[in-house]
Design brief:
Largest sheet: 6 strands, mixed
CATH class of the largest domain: Alpha Beta
Shape: elongated
Order of helices and strands: EHHHEEEHEEHHEHEEEEEHEHEEH
Oligomer: single chain
Number of helices: 10
CATH architecture of the largest domain: 3-Layer(aba) Sandwich
Number of domains: 2
CATH superfamily of the largest domain: von Willebrand factor, type A domain
Helix content: 25-40%
Strand content: 15-25%
């Protein structure tokens, strides 16, 4: 037995809602009875009421919520297993989307050049899986590891400097976040992180993060995007007019490629560094090197068929709700004549 969407089990917390509401209702009714009725009058108002039946109804509602969550999680019975060959590599691209990536020393801009190169790369992946993490001051996964080319291309088209709200450049956090993306990946598959950035790192420890990844068998390669001489950063003002970005003193901000930082990251990550040009971002060169990771193929067993059984849980939910609807609060008794 397995579940298609296991994260939905987080919603099981909703099963306590009927219990909490029932407890709140009991306390409220008790207070009202103390205020407006007591003694014989209070006993007459509660005549025939069954606390046990009330709590049975609450438990039924809670169980209905539990089975509703189980149905939503997509339970399925695992079918037969067969041996499949593992080939290809898992690649997570960590793409810088800080404001400096709007610079146009690579045409049409640094970020657009990177997106175009990644789209071309999708056509050349052979048994490989691609994931994409974008980062500025904070990293964010926009594409988990997958081999769905159309989905990857669609998501890449939406990437921009607005994808991450907090500006800055923290390459170390991006590498650590990319490493986390490999959780669940087969141990026999080659793994690599490709950092695409101008290297203007506003935080420290990027090389240390690459070394930590290398210790886990993950190669970290870097692509330097931009010019060493530097250029301005075109941004839009409040009126939509394009101007060059300025600092707090009113001076134009100049962004430069930091080759040294990116080379150190690649060295600590047992990878390679490539400087992007207008004609070639450098992904093909790096992919040629990474192909060495997938020279050997191994076999593993996987489940190859699944039978969904969510309808059993759904039917039980309907049955529980019908039972709860037909249940009474209690058996009414006649008042004895005085």
């Amino acid at each position: 037995m397995s579940f298609e969407h296991p994260w939905i089990f987080l919603l099981l917390i909703l099963a306590v809602v009927p219990v909490l509401l029932a407890m709140r209702s009991i306390r409220r009714r008790k207070k009202l009875l103390e205020i407006y009725a007591s003694g014989v009058m209070g006993n007459r108002l509660l005549l025939g009421e069954s606390p046990r039946l009330r709590w049975i109804r609450v438990i039924i509602l809670s169980l209905a919520i539990v089975f509703m969550v189980i149905a939503a999680a997509g339970p399925q019975i695992n079918g037969g297993k067969e041996k499949v060959k593992i080939r290809g590599i898992d690649i997570v691209v960590a793409m810088d989307v800080s404001t400096s990536m709007l610079a146009q020393d690579l045409k049409p801009s640094r970020i657009e050049k990177a997106k175009l190169a990644l789209t071309d790369l999708l056509e050349k992946l052979e048994g490989d899986r691609l994931g994409v993490v974008v980062f500025a001051a904070q990293p964010y996964t926009v594409l988990p590891l997958c081999d769905d080319r159309s989905a990857a291309e669609m998501i890449l088209n939406t990437v921009s400097v607005e994808t991450v709200s907090a500006q800055g450049t923290d390459i170390a956090s991006a590498i650590d976040h990319a490493v986390f993306s490999f959780n669940g990946s087969e141990s026999d598959r080659g793994k690599a992180i490709i950092v695409i950035s101008d290297g203007e790192n506003h935080e420290e420890d990027a090389a240390d993060a690459a070394a930590r990844a290398a210790e886990k068998g993950i190669i970290v390669c870097t692509i330097g995007i931009g010019s060493s001489s530097g250029t301005t950063i075109p941004v839009k003002d409040e009126n939509g007019k394009v101007t060059n970005k300025r600092d707090g003193s009113g001076n134009e901000v100049i962004t430069k490629l930091n080759d040294a930082a990116l080379k150190e990251i690649a060295r600590e990550g047992n990878g390679s560094y490539v400087k992007a040009t207008n004609s070639d971002l450098g992904l093909n060169e790096i992919m040629g090197q990474l192909r060495e990771l997938s020279k050997t193929t191994s076999e593993t067993e996987r489940y190859t068929s699944f039978t969904p059984v969510y309808y059993f849980a759904s039917a039980f939910v309907v049955l529980l709700l019908i039972v709860e609807l037909l249940m009474a609060e209690g058996k009414r008794k006649k008042l004895k004549k005085a």
